[in-house]
Amino acid sequence: MSSKLADAVVNIMEDEALRLVREAIDEGQDPIKILDACQQGMKIIGERFAKHEYFLPELIAGGELLKRVSDILKPRLESGKKVEGDGSSRGKIVLGTVKGDIHDIGKDIVGFMLEVNGFEVIDLGIDVPEAKFVAAVREKRPQVVALSGLLTLAWDSMKSTVEALERAGLRKNVKVMIGGGQTDAMISDYVRADGYGTDAMSAVRMAVGWTLAR
Ligand code: B12
Predict the structure, then answer these.
(1) Cα-to-centroid distance, 91 and ligand 1 (Å)
(2) Which CATH number fits domain 91-213: 3.40.50.280, 3.10.450.50, 3.40.190.10, 3.40.640.10?
(3) Which atom of ligand 1 approaches the CA of 50 most closely?
(4) What is the pTM of this model?
(5) Which terminus of the chain has fewer Cβ atoms in its 10 Å neighbourhood, N or C?
(6) Is residue 193 predicted with pLDDT exceeding 80?
C-alpha cells in the first residue's frame, strides 16, 4: 500500500491518495506509517521541483493534499501513538517555523503529536523572528523550544534564534530541538541545539526524555 500511496501523492492524484489513506486506516495500519508514506511522496515532489520537472503549482497542490491527509489522520494519531505517561501535563513547549520559512505542515503535525502526548504547546506560527521566540520563552517559561524549518536558510535562522536566547540569558533554562527537511547532527551542532529530529515521534521522544530528566 505505502508505495501506491506515495505514488499517488507524487502524482498529486488527490482522490486516489485520500482513498488509499482511508483504505489503510480501515485495514488497521499504523497512522504514523501512513504519514511516512505521504512524507516520502512529498520528498519526491520536492526533488522534481528542484529538477524543474514540477513547478510552484505542484508544490502548492502537494501541500494542500497533505493537509487533507493529516486532517484525516489526526484523530487516529490521537487514539494511537502515545508514549506512556499518567496523563498530566508533561511541560510546556514553544514551537515555531523560524524566520524566512513558511512551511508549516510538518510543524503542525509535530505540535499535534506533542499535545497528544501531554505537552502544552505554544505555537508561534510561521516565519517567526528571533525576538518572538525570546519573548515567548520569557513569558511562558517552557522547558523546550522546538524550531522547525525546511529551507536551507532556516539553519541560519535557527542559529540566530539560539543566539538570541543566549543573549537574553534564557538558553540555560530550555532545551532546544530542531527539525524538518535536511536537519542532521551536523546542523544541530551548527545551530547549537540540544537535539534534532526528522519526524514527529522523534520530537515527542526527545521532549519526554528531557522533561523526565529534569
Ligand atoms: C509542500 C511544500 C511547500 C508548500 C508549503 C505549504 C505549507 N503550508 O507548509 C509551499 C508551496 C508553500 C512551499 C513554498 C516554498 N518551497 Co517548499 N516544499 C514543499 C515540500 C514539497 C513538502 C513539505 C512538506 O509539507 N512535507 C510533508 C511534511 C509532513 O513533512 P516535513 O515538513 O518534513 O515534516 C516532518 C519532519 O520534517 C519533522 N519535523 C518538522 N518540523 C520539525 C520540528 C522539530 C523540532 C522536529 C523534531 C521534527 C520536525 O516532522 C514532520 C512530521 O513527520 C518540500 C519538499 C520536502 N523535501 O519536504 C519543499 C521544499 C522544502 N520547498 C522548497 C522551496 C525551494 C520552496 C520555495 C522557496 C519555492 C519558491 N520558489 O517559492 C518556497 C519557500 C517559501 C518560504 N519562504 O518558506 C525546497 C527547499 C530547498 C532548500 N534547500 O532550501 C524543498 C526541499 C523542495 C526542493 N527539493 O526544492 N513549499
Answers:
(1) 28
(2) 3.40.50.280
(3) 90
(4) 0.94
(5) C
(6) yes
